[in-house]
Specification:
- The protein is mainly alpha-helical and 486 residues long.
- It has one domain: MFS general substrate transporter like domains (Growth Hormone, Chain: A), CATH 1.20.1250.
- Helix content is 77%, strand content 0%.
- The protein is built from 22 helices and no strands.
- 56% of the residues are buried.
- One of its GO terms (molecular function) is transmembrane transporter activity.
Length: 486
């Protein structure tokens, strides 16, 4: 609680300026708490569904039902994203985040119903749907909120912190599953309700953070309001008055504007939506959500299988930490290009490893009981997660908020979020069925081809926005009228 209230107390508040560390902590509170809650809620379901006690309790749900359980979260997120843009435009980014946090808390409570031995799948589906709706609203509001409060010098790192927090949530969910599912028969029930705790922190952070200065200006506030907000979040070296003047100029110049797909804004809108779709269409959730199912053919024991997911979670966290540091030095475009190439090669390697396992070419076992093909598949999975965490995971959150002008940003981000969740739903709700048709090697090769397409898209259409203000980045793209000119 002291950390949450630090930017609004003491001498820093009296002077109207804060240190850079305090500013970073303050702005990072919302993405940190939201991302951890979301990662925990999304990441724990795969381990639970692979648990024998879970399948006994729910009478062995088939692949279609397991896909539905996993996909309820992105399904709810689609609905949340549809109404999130209007909500954020009317009440503000932080108000939308507050409402999302309430849905997270309520959904986590509903997921705890198995603790009182309610054997129906309805609470599991409804609870994940509620958390999904909250995630849909939060993904629309939190990235825009963070970008609008951050200075250009560290805006990329702050936007990337969402991905880092999600990675931390996934890692914690894997660790929790390993601890409670291996030795405690009813442990999966507690795993379902644990997201309640980070959800409460998300609620607290959303309750105390200030309004977005851009949203305040868009809703008629005078210069003193955004200046007062930014003075609490900038260092003495930052020129707050100049920053507010640029925001006001951008808002005034945008009083006459068309739809998000008018000729002026079409390019920025299409790029933003495509990037958000590719973030999940590249297949990250076939690793993060279905890792226990993928490893079932490769690893002999439940405990060992869950332990390897912890290592994948560790790679996820460490790589995101690196990404938060380098995104403002290397740049968005370079990271996306390298990440797409590495992800493609990693999936091809995983497909080859699975193929060798199926053909029984590799029958040499390691000390853990895995064949060398299994070791190769897990290594490729870790490489894939590393490349994703250095590129598409964090950078995709920057692109819509940086390329789109402030007056249509909430609507474009909301539309991009809807498309992101639709793509995620397709991936999560179809993966086990795809595996049943073409097996793991075929499924991995399909996603490798999608990553190759993503590489080409970034090469041709994504501009570099490193060290640009939001206004400069959006103006640069608005000056381009079609895809052939970039």
């Amino acid at each position: 609680f002291c950390l949450l209230t630090l930017p609004f107390q003491g001498s820093a508040m009296v002077q109207g300026k804060v240190s850079k560390v305090t500013a970073l902590l303050s702005i990072g509170l919302m993405p940190l708490t939201f991302g951890t809650a979301f990662g925990f809620a999304f990441g724990n379901i795969g381990g639970a569904m692979s648990c024998d006690a879970f399948n006994i309790f729910y009478k062995s749900p088939d692949n279609e039902m397991q896909q539905l359980i996993a996909a309820m979260l992105p399904m709810g997120a689609i609905l949340g994203s549809l109404c999130g843009g209007t909500f954020a435009d009317k009440y503000g980014r932080n108000a939308a985040s507050l409402f999302a946090s309430v849905l997270f808390v309520c959904g986590s409570v509903v997921l705890g119903m198995p603790l009182i031995n309610i054997e129906s799948l309805a609470p599991l589906l409804i609870g994940r749907g509620m958390i999904g709706a909250g995630a849909g609203i939060a993904f629309m509001s939190v990235p825009a909120y963070v970008c609008e409060l951050s200075a250009p010098s560290y805006r990329g790192a702050m936007a990337s912190s969402i991905s880092l927090a999600i990675a931390l949530g996934f890692f914690c969910s894997y660790l929790c599953n390993w601890l409670v599912l291996t030795d405690y028969e009813e442990g999966w029930k507690w795993s379902m309700v644990v997201p309640l705790f980070p959800s409460l922190l998300f609620f607290l952070a959303s309750s105390i953070l200030p309004k977005s200065p851009r949203w305040a200006i868009l809703n008629g506030a005078g210069p003193s309001v955004p200046i007062g907000i930014l003075q609490r979040l900038r260092t003495p070296e930052d020129d707050v008055s100049k920053e507010v003047a640029e925001i006001i100029e951008d808002v005034r110049a945008s009083k006459q504007y068309g739809s998000v797909f008018s000729p002026t804004y079409r390019l920025a809108s299409i790029i933003s939506i495509t990037v958000m779709m590719l973030q999940v269409a590249t297949g990250i959730d076939i690793i993060l959500v279905y890792a226990p199912q993928n490893f079932a053919k490769l690893i002999p024991s439940q405990s060992t299988k869950l332990f390897w997911t912890i290592l994948i979670g560790g790679v996820l966290v460490l790589s995101n930490c690196v990404a938060c540091y380098v995104v403002d030095f290397i740049g968005r475009r370079a990271l996306l290009l390298c990440g797409s190439a590495g992800m493609s090669l990693s999936l091809i390697g995983a497909a080859m490893s699975f193929h060798l396992k199926e053909m029984s070419v590799s029958d040499v076992e390691t000390a853990s009981g895995m064949g060398l093909a299994g070791v190769g598949c897990i290594a490729c999975s870790m490489l894939y997660v590393m490349f994703f965490s250095l590129s598409w995971g964090p950078v995709a959150f920057c692109i819509p908020s940086e390329l789109v002008p402030s007056h249509i940003r909430a609507r474009v981000v909301a539309l991009a979020a809807v498309c992101n969740w639709v793509a995620d739903y397709v991936v999560v709700a179809s993966y086990l069925s795809v595996v049943s048709l073409v097996a793991e090697p075929g499924a991995f090769l399909i996603y490798a081809m999608i990553n190759i397409f993503a590489l080409g898209f970034v090469w041709k259409y994504i501009p570099e926005t490193k060290d640009m203000s939001l206004e400069d980045a959006s103006r640069r793209l608005i000056s381009q009228k079609d895809f052939d000119t970039i």
